[in-house]
Amino acid sequence: MGLVSLKIGDGTARFKRVTLSSLAMNVLMLFSVLTTNLFALYSFTSSPKNQTLLHHAHKNISLISQQVSLILREIDSSQNKPTQTEKGLLGYETIDLSRPNIANELKLFLQHHKLPLGKDSRTGITEMVASVGHSCEKSMDLLSQYMNYRVSGPCPDDWSLAQKLILRGCEPLPRRRCFAKSIPKVGLYSFPISLWKNVSDKTVNWSGLGCKNLQCLNSKKLSKDCVGCFDLVNGFENPKYVNSRTKNDFVIDDVLALGSGGIRIGFDLGGGSGTFAARMAERNVTVITATLNIDAPFSEFIAARGLFPLYLSLDHRFPFYDNVFDLVHVASALDVGGRSEKLEFLMFDIDRILRPGGLFWLDNFYCTSDEKKGALTRLIERFGFKKLKWVVGDKVNGSGKSEVYLSVVLQKPVRV
After folding, report:
1. Would you say residue 329 lies in a domain?
2. C-beta of residue 135 within 8 angstroms of C-beta of residue 154
3. 152 Rama class: left (phi>0) / alpha (psi -120 to 50) / beta
4. Does residue 167 lie within any of the structural domains?
5. 236-290 pLDDT tens trace
6. What burial letters (b/e) apply to 193-218, b meaning 16+ CB within 10 Å?
7. Measured distance CA(294)–CA(259) in Å, rounded
8. H helices present in 147-257, as ranges
9. Per the domain annotation, does 156 fall within a domain?
10. Are 125 and 119 spatial neighbours (Cβ–Cβ below 8 Å)?
11. Cβ distance 28 to 73 under 8 Å?
12. What membrane topology term does the record carry (predicted)?
């Protein structure tokens, strides 16, 4: 079936292409009308002797009409199914915007918009749907509070609220039409000097944090990977990855020598204040550091060093294409807790973004028990990685207790 064009002035009016379903519907309707009219004509011209036959014929016509009606309803239902399927896939009905006290900006952001040229022939989508995390439905009060602001005005100083939503699985967050709070970046150094110069307290936003300066942060143990990690001169950061304090501490140059085809880009999960990325930058390797601002301004501090922070939780699918990284480095961030399936999902996503021949570096993973170490070992073996380095060693913590740590360097195989 072709398109029918009608020239009107300087424009052209085009009628829609006739579909097979609409054609079938028209044929059935025409058949029904013709049959009914023939039957009426016959009833008026027939003799009384044929009334019995006419009665049976009337029943047959009635059955035909019922069948035609059923077929028409089936065609109409089949036409509506793609729309219902599309709504289900895109999550049209996920978030109930009819609740009271929902911010108008949230309603506007989540409103569906028709595609300007109609249905997309490749995807079958007819509307543009806003990207927002499915779990946001569980935190609608906080989400509405986050979206309650003055359009084109300053955004509320609520990054801690945004992070709370992210940690509850509300990721990605909806976009906003306001200006984020500006922090003058005073005292930034040029690259590569910035890698090992202490950052000024004035370069970060301290709202929502217990500490209000870097000295306070350096006096605390924020995590196993961050003990005084904001002191780049006198703390433990400077010797990291270039000097070994224990057999579990691998030297960067030794690991890089294991990479076949060269190590050029890497991904660091839970990289503290960015020291791993800094050491890699000195060796012309670009590393993205995934982090959140848990009790400290990690993202701003990493950026002040001239490095690339990625504000992302480990529950979010990594926003990278398959097989792109030469190296993935992870330490205590692999300890996701909860059920074993959660760790499996994380490991499979790490494997997805790591190229064949790329290196997976598990750096000083704390094994709280033999059971936990065994479960992690069995999981790693499922991927068929080649073991280049595998060290299990003890470290004495601050209280004098011995703890078991696992450090490994594995190479992703080529799978067919």
Report:
1. yes
2. no
3. left
4. yes
5. 899 999 998 889 999 999 999 998 768 999 999 988 999 999 999 999 999 999 9
6. ebbebbbebebbbbebbebeebeebb
7. 32
8. 159-167, 214-218, 252-256
9. yes
10. yes
11. no
12. Single-pass membrane protein; Single-pass type II membrane protein
Please state whether beta strands 325-330 and 265-269 pair in parallel, antiparallel, or not at all (unpaired): parallel
| Domain encompassing residue 23 | 19-44+54-75
Two tokens, residue 297: 């301004």
Token pair listed for 253: 């140059």
Contact (CB, 8 A) for 103 and 144: yes
**For the segment 123-167, what is each residue's pLDDT rounded down to a tens digit?**
777 877 777 787 888 889 999 999 999 999 999 999 999 999 999
Strand spans (E) along 126-189: 127-128
Number of domains in the chain: 3
H/E element, 147: none
Q: Locate 214 and state its tokens.
A: 């870097």
Tell me, yes or no, whether 80 lies in a domain: no
Is residue 164 located within the same domain as residue 207? no
pTM of the model: 0.73
Residue 281 contacts residue 307 (beta carbons within 8 Å): yes
